């Protein structure tokens, strides 16, 4: 059957079109090719810069993964508190999301590293993960809240009318549906967190950006160092956004 | 015959608006009571009070001498005794038809998965949807979804079934298949309270028809009496508009 030709007049921005896919391919493969070709054609300084990166990249992944795990945990706890009928928990959770979302991440990182970590001894890595997790936990809590609220009220009513307890209804009916809704925005938070993890380079965590800065300041190759590190971030984020896209489509397909 | 449901002087406010004004109604075992009336008359609210989806502000409601309105009574026990069917079906979209039906028997009654499945197949056969057991709700028509919703409620072996406008969200050609299932239930002696706009159906299947307006029961009678010889002016006015 021939696809239905829709009039262009009513469409503001063409959807999942081939044009978009072209843009992704140009950016991703272009960045990847540059990353590979430059060190080959111009070993100094590009090969040296690349050789400088691996342990930094490892730390970046470490910070990102640990932070997202704890952020998810915090976000989940916060949203459970928001759903509870205990007023006190509710206020604490709302306060958490309101306060944290109102303070820049960089300020929070400084605060934990220079203020909190002075009271109780914390290694830079722990401070970094703490700051990132607390900050992103607040955003994830809001995403989860929105996801739960997007489930129609009739679902909860049908579940409790069948005799399920409130918690059973939440666990068996509401959460599984919420997961589908929140997966794409949480994937986006993961990518944002990966990028924001570069901020922790300021508090003596040796991540990939810190490594690039070190190389640049020692050898004075600013343009080369920062270009390479930007390309690494770009390749990573484009790769993950594609992955999340595929995951999302599969999730909708399996329905 | 014994009263299955007894509603005594129930009032309910939504803010300044009084949705139910001192409503009393009894439903006997095996009786089918149809509630009709204009929208906003409190029909659905009354129905939702029977399994405490809404709390009452005054008055009491009993199912088989268990007081639904008593906050100390375990409401889950009472909800197990009454099955509810909603206007908008409210099937669980992430579960298959079979899982929709077995969810509550497994998690509330604690019966085994195998037994729950077996009973679910029997119920699906009864509503004519055995071949849809492994479909998801989104793959079904509205009429099919509502029949699954009825099977889902029946799986809890309720003593009474409550229907909140079960055909109002359906395309006209699908109303018949749902009414057929409800008619079968009536034949089997299920106690039912049905809020409906299907006057022909109310007349044919109902043992009694209750007309509500502005939060009150205006008139109730046997179907033929109420439809052919309405006593109250408001009943007459309503029926002249819908019939």
Note the run of SSEs of chain B as H and E. Answer: EEEHEEHEHHHEHEHEEHH
Overall strand count of chain B? 10
Shape of chain B: globular
The interface involving the most residues is between:
A-B, 19 and 26 residues
**What's the end-to-end separation of chain A, in Å?**
24 Å
- Report strand % of chain A: under 5%
Task: List descriptors.
heterodimer; A: 255 residues; mainly alpha; 10 helices; 80% helix; B: 243 residues; alpha/beta; 4-stranded antiparallel beta sheet; 39% helix; globular
SSE blueprint:
The complex is a heterodimer of chains A (255) and B (243).
Chain A: H1 18-41, H2 43-52, H3 54-83, H4 87-101, H5 105-119, H6 124-149, H7 153-161, H8 166-196, H9 208-219, H10 222-253
Helix pairs in contact in A: 1-2, 1-10, 3-4, 3-6, 3-9, 4-6, 5-6, 6-8, 7-8, 8-10, 9-10
Chain B: E1 3-14, E2 17-28, E3 32-36, H1 43-50, E4 58-63, E5 66-67, H2 75-81, E6 82-85, H3 97-109, H4 113-126, H5 142-154, E7 160-164, H6 172-187, E8 191-195, H7 199-205, E9 208-213, E10 216-221, H8 223-228, H9 233-242
Parallel strand pairs in B: 3-8, 3-9, 6-7, 7-8
Antiparallel strand pairs in B: 1-2, 1-4, 4-5, 9-10
Helix pairs in contact in B: 3-4, 3-5, 4-5, 5-6
Notes on the protein architecture:
- The complex is a heterodimer of chains A (255) and B (243).
- Chain A has helices spanning 18-41, 43-52, 54-83, 87-101, 105-119, 124-149, 153-161, 166-196, 208-219, 222-253.
- With 255 residues, chain A is mainly alpha-helical.
- Chain A starts with 17 loop residues before the first helix and ends with a helix.
- Chain B is an alpha/beta fold and 243 residues long.
- Chain B has helices spanning 43-50, 75-81, 97-109, 113-126, 142-154, 172-187, 199-205, 223-228, 233-242; strands spanning 3-14, 17-28, 32-36, 58-63, 66-67, 82-85, 160-164, 191-195, 208-213, 216-221.
- In chain B, helix 3 (97-109) crosses helix 4 and helix 4 (113-126) packs across helix 5 (142-154).
- Chain B is globular, with a radius of gyration of 18 Å.
- The mean pLDDT of chain B is 93.
- Chains A and B meet through helix 7 and helix 8 of A and helix 2, strand 6, helix 3 and helix 5 of B.
């Amino acid at each position: 059957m021939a696809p239905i030709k829709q009039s262009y007049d009513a469409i503001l921005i063409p959807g999942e079109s081939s044009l978009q896919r072209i843009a992704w391919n140009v950016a991703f493969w272009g960045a990847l090719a540059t990353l590979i070709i430059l060190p080959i054609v111009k070993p100094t300084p590009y090969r040296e810069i690349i050789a400088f990166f691996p342990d930094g990249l490892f730390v970046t992944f470490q910070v990102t993964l640990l932070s997202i795990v704890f952020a998810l945990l915090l976000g989940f706890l916060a949203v459970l508190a928001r759903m509870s009928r205990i007023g006190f928990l509710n206020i604490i959770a709302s306060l958490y999301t309101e306060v944290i979302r109102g303070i820049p991440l960089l300020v929070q990182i400084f605060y934990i590293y220079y203020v909190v970590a002075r009271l109780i001894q914390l290694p830079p890595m722990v401070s970094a993960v703490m700051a990132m997790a607390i900050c992103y936990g607040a955003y994830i809590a809001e995403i989860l809240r929105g996801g739960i609220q997007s489930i129609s009220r009739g679902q909860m009513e049908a579940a409790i009318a069948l005799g399920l307890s409130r918690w059973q209804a939440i666990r068996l009916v509401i959460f599984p549906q919420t997961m589908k809704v929140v997966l794409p925005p949480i994937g986006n938070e993961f990518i944002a967190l990966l990028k924001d993890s570069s901020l922790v380079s300021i508090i003596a965590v040796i991540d990939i950006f810190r490594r690039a800065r070190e190389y640049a300041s020692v050898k004075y190759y600013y343009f080369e160092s920062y270009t390479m590190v930007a390309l690494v971030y770009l390749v990573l984020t484009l790769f993950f956004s594609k992955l999340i896209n595929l995951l999302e489509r599969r999730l909708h397909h399996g329905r | 015959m014994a009263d299955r449901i007894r509603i005594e002087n129930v009032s309910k406010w939504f803010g300044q608006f009084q949705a139910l004004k001192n409503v009393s109604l009894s439903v006997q075992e095996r009786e089918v009571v149809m509630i009709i009336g204009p929208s906003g008359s409190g029909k659905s609210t009354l129905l939702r009070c029977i399994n405490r989806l809404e709390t009452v502000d005054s008055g009491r409601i009993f199912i088989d001498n268990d007081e639904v309105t008593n906050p100390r009574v375990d409401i889950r026990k009472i909800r197990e005794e009454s099955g509810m069917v909603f206007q908008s079906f409210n099937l669980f979209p992430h579960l298959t038809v079979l899982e929709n039906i077995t969810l509550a028997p497994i998690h509330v009654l604690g019966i085994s998965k195998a037994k729950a499945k077996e009973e679910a197949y029997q119920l699906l056969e009864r509503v004519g949807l055995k071949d849809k057991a492994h479909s998801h709700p989104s793959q079904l028509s509205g009429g099919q979804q509502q029949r699954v919703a009825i099977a889902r409620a029946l799986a809890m072996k309720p003593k009474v079934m409550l229907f909140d406008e079960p055909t109002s969200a359906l395309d006209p050609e699908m109303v018949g298949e749902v009414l057929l299932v409800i008619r079968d239930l009536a034949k089997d002696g299920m106690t039912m309270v049905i809020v409906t706009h299907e006057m022909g159906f109310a007349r044919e299947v109902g043992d009694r028809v209750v007309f509500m307006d502005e939060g009150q029961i205006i008139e109730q009678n046997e179907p033929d009496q109420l439809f052919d010889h309405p006593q109250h002016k408001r009943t007459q006015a309503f029926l002249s508009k819908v019939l």
